[in-house]
Amino acid sequence: MNIKEYMLDLGKQAKSAGRALSRAESGIKNAALLAIADELAQQSSFLALENAKDCQAGKEKGLDAALLDRLELTPSRIQSMIEGLQEVAALPDPVGAISDMNYRPSGIQVGQMRVPLGVIGIIFESRPNVTVDAAALCLKSGNACILRGGSESIHSNKAIAQCIKTGLERVGLPSAAVQVVETVDRAAVGELITLKNYVDVIVPRGGKSLIERISNEATIPVIKHLDGICHVYIDGAADLEKAVAIAVNAKTHRYGVCNAMETLLIAESIAAQVLPKLADAYMDKGVELRGCLKSCSLESRCIRASTEDWATEYLSPILSIKIVADIDEAMQHIHEYSSGHTESIVTENYTLARRFLREVDSSSVMVNASTRFADGFEYGLGAEIGISTDKLLARGPVGLEGLTSLKYVVLGDGHIRI
To answer: What are phi and psi of 6, to 5 degrees?
Structure first.
């Protein structure tokens, strides 16, 4: 197979299908999503058989237990994919929505209309359910997509792709609106991220090394976040009961997710009161505590943190703790070490809460809430394709609206400029 020609052909087909999809009415797109869901249900046994091939190959290659777990399509996960398609079908369609329509002194009306981005290339690892999530969001937002999953899930992705193709054809939409790259050759990724004449945006989902490679080599705009070094700052004016609940939840609700807290900042004025209570809760859950010198002097169960700890996304039961003088030192620490994902302040001081919201420059900034809420479903966006820490294109959880752009529309009635 000539990879360059193969990827070029996918790009051309996607571009053509994208134009047709951008014209599709909401009812047709929703019908396609439901048809795909129906096909997944009918082919669940086939999906399980194909997935078993990937799981067996993964075991033979020595993939660790966590990767094998993400790879497996259990009956409940197949059902979750079906329900996800149904949920996206029920969401409002952003395409064609017109906002901010105002009369100008000349008499014309000027507003903005939401439109699809065009063709989206999505590169992801391990989880075959991402194939369905990505396809659903792209279809609903009127975008064609080219999906390149990991080599470890190739059989699963091909089986899912066949279900998507059947669903699209059933309602009369072009099957090329969703294409799965059917080669495991790594060169396909390099070709996809440079197809600038046919692909409008790249979305990588996976480990930091994958996303860094895509960001460095792509000649197309990329929607991404590299890591999630999230902070919670417990202010001197915090309600301690709220502070303990939030700080424990932000770290221990789930460890291996990008919106889990990795560093806890505590105001010096209340550290002696709150740190022992937190340490008790973290010890009960098996969390290793790595603290600054002041933290270690107050709490013997902390081990000394290194400078590297402040810049580390653990994705495991390890937490860095730093005692700071006040909100200014807390925000300075966040400014220096945050990945721009999510930060939260716990305080009853309205003025300080407003300062934190205004001055902390991350994609999500919270007051008296766990960082675990930084998620498309929790924000009311429905499914998401990922989190973006970029400042252009989408920022924060990327749902349907994040996969669209705005164009200006002008209404006149024979108006001419004088």
So the answer is: -60, -50
Reported as a single tens digit per residue, the pLDDT across 49-97 is: 999 999 999 999 998 887 888 899 999 999 999 999 999 999 999 999 9
At 375 the three-state DSSP class reads coil
Place of tokens 């966006």: 381
Closest CA to 136 of 189, 70, 80, 218: 80
Residue 263 pairs in a beta bridge with 231, 320
Sheet containing strand 98-103, edge to edge, reads: 98-103, 109-116, 404-411
Dihedral pair phi/psi, residue 382, rounded to 5°? 75, -150
d(CA 265, CA 271): 10
- Backbone φ and ψ for 173, nearest 5 degrees, come out as -95, 150
Q: Which residue stretches of 285-342 are H helix?
A: 293-298, 307-310, 327-337
Q: For residue range 314-367, what is the model confidence (pLDDT) as tens digits?
A: 999 999 999 999 999 999 999 999 999 999 999 999 999 999 999 999 999 999
The token pair at 304 is 């000394």
Look at residue 256 and tell me whether its pLDDT is greater than 80. Answer: yes
SS3 sequence of 77-142: HHHHHHHHHHHHHHCCCCCCCEEEEEECCCCCEEEEEEEECCEEEEEECCCCHHHHHHHHHHHHCC
What strands lie across the sheet with 342-346, from one edge to the other? 303-304, 288-291, 318-324, 261-267, 230-234, 342-346, 364-367
3-state SS class at 262 = strand
d(CA 63, CA 70): 11
69 strand-pairing partners: none
Over residues 118-163, the pLDDT tens digits come to 999 999 887 898 899 999 999 999 999 999 998 999 999 999 999 9
Kindly give, in sequence order, each residue whose CB lies less than 8 Å from that of residue 363, ignoring residues fewer than 6 positions away. Answer: 225, 340, 341, 342, 374, 387, 388, 389, 395, 396
- Tally of CA atoms within 13 A in the half-sphere of 332 that contains its CB: 8
In Å, the largest CA–CA distance within the chain is 78
As a whole number of angstroms, the distance between CA 377 and CA 383 comes to 6
